[in-house]
Amino acid sequence: MSNEHGNLIKTPKQLITMVFVSFFVPLIIILLLMVFVNNGKRGDSSAMTDELIKPVAQLNFKDASAPRVMQTGEQVYKAVCSSCHASGAAGAPKFGDAGAWASRLGKGYDGLLTSVLKGKGAMPARGGANPTDVSDYELGRAVVYLANSAGGKLPEPKEPAAPAAK
Questions:
Q1: pTM
Q2: From CA 157, how far away is CA 108, in angstroms rounded?
Q3: Domains of the chain: which residue ranges?
């Protein structure tokens, strides 16, 4: 047998060099890859964070002493109802789908408003809205907006009388 394939490392200096190269060269390559990948993601991190949490944690500060401005039905729909009624999530009738709303429109305004206030099926009471944020009147306007989008002919509810000044 011939000894054609001999050992490449013949001295201790070559052994130390090979250990160093086999350990540090992959680390340097990984570090350079991390810098390359992370380089395009620099920017205003607070704006990016705000954009990521916006659907979940949006804060809306209000002046408690200011007079209350009633929201329209469309505004309440966009703020409270659209999360389910835009996509039909959990069996919610979709916005503008006359077929899905046909049986519900037979209940009339009072029946629909009662379903919203007490909850029905997967829909929580008041559509999940806080009573201090959205009044019953505003929810009624949203009911009319949703029902009329599907061909209903419900009239706009009457605005409640302002509380008497003391």
A1: 0.58
A2: 12
A3: 10-39, 73-149
